[in-house]
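Tokens as discussed.
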């Protein structure tokens, strides 16, 4: 009896040991499963998976050039093929909306890991908000022409990298000028004489988008020799010069003269960009008061159009200091709030390669700041000729206060309606004084 009980005890002990071992093995298997749950039903931590291209990262890229989307999408596709762990999602906004709202979109870092900035007031505002990551030590800066990326610097730090080189001077129809025997004028009297000749021939001399880019673009060559000091608007914001002085009143007087003599189309103050562009593209206007960035879109709509650049010289030839205006814009930047700064920098590095920049330039019709890019189109070659001319950086973008910039542009619009140059200048200066009083 005792022996039987002893054997039974051994059998029970053996079975218990086996069952215990099976239970522990099952627990180990369950804990390693991604779908396993803990005691409270919460998912257990999954074991790391094998990495094929790094941790997946999604970058947000925002800018204002909707017309470049097709080309940029192709470039992004190539970037993603080279970096399979990075996805780039793009959002574009109209330029006016972008200038007013981009900063607010950047604040929490969820939008605009990579973003673009205009130089001038927008750049200054974003810099003041601390939303630019410092790019000063990045090797890809060596891919750019140093003098053309200065607009992206502040206090010695490279906060943004201008990608486009633009000439903010009017475009003219070469065949219309040749047909009517007009040589591009080199002084103000010559400019007025050319406009009068075109008007008498039944052609609108200048297509001017007064309700669009016109005031902001045309003001630059109009003021460049009236106030040849490149610091003139910096001094305005410092309170050491005023819009009521001769340099700006003269500029407004010349705007009014062009309008009153009928050298702008009717209702120029109410004309938007599309309307002014159409007049020029259709050969109904000989000059378009915009900039080099518009040449490629013009050519797309009218392949027969032959275009060149022409800046009005508002003084006598012997007093002209500058031949035109340039801007370096579409400034590439990394959001300081981005959760993926290294991947964002990698994307800018990709854009800075000369073969990629060349693709962007030749497909969008925009000259770039990247070194050694080969331009293939007639328009880009024409624009590139201006690199040897004496140009100054766009005066409007040296205005860092947004309200002052608005006041300056509003004074141009005012003389196209019913204000005298003196009235318009005084009203604008009153706004400047208010802004300076806030400091």
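Sequence:
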């Amino acid at each position: 009896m005792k022996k039987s009980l002893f054997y039974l005890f051994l059998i029970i002990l053996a079975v218990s040991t086996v069952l215990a071992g099976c239970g522990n093995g099952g627990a180990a298997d369950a804990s390693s499963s991604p779908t396993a749950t803990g005691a409270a039903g919460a998912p257990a931590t999954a074991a790391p998976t094998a990495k094929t291209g790094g941790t997946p990262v999604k970058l947000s890229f925002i800018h204002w050039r909707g017309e470049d989307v097709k080309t940029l999408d192709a470039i992004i596709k190539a970037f993603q093929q080279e970096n399979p762990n990075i996805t780039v999602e793009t959002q574009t906004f109209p330029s006016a909306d972008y200038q007013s709202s981009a900063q607010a979109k950047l604040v929490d870092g969820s939008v605009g890991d990579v973003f673009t900035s205009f130089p001038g007031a927008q750049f200054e505002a974003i810099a003041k908000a601390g939303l630019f990551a410092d790019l000063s030590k990045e090797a890809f800066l060596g891919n750019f022409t140093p003098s053309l990326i200065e607009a992206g610097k502040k206090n010695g730090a490279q906060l943004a990298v201008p990608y486009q080189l633009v000439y903010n001077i009017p475009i003219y129809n070469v065949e219309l000028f040749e047909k009517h025997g007009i040589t591009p004028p080199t002084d103000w009297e010559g400019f007025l004489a050319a406009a009068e000749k075109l008007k008498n021939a039944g052609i609108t001399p200048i297509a001017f988008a007064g309700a669009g880019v016109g005031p902001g673009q045309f003001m630059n060559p109009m003021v460049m020799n009236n106030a040849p000091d490149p610091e003139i608007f910096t001094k305005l914001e410092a309170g050491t010069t005023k819009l009521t002085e001769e340099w700006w009143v003269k500029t407004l007087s010349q705007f009014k003269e062009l309008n009153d003599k009928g050298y702008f189309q009717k209702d120029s103050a109410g004309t938007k960009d599309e309307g002014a562009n159409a007049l020029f593209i259709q050969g109904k206007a000989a000059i378009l008061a915009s900039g080099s960035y518009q040449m490629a879109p013009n050519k797309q709509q009218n392949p027969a159009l032959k275009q060149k650049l022409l800046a009005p010289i508002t003084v006598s030839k012997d007093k002209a200091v500058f031949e035109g205006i340039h801007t370096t814009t579409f400034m590439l930047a990394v959001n300081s709030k981005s959760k993926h700064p290294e991947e964002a920098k990698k994307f800018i590095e990709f854009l800075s390669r000369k073969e990629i920049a060349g693709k962007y330039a030749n497909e969008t019709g925009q000259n770039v700041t990247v070194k050694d890019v080969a331009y293939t189109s007639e328009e880009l070659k024409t624009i590139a000729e201006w690199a040897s001319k004496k140009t100054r950086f766009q005066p409007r973008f040296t205005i860092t206060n947004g309200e002052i910039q608005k006041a300056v542009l509003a004074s141009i619009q005012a003389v196209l309606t019913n204000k005298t140059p003196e009235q318009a200048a005084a009203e604008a200066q009153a706004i400047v004084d208010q802004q300076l009083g806030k400091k």
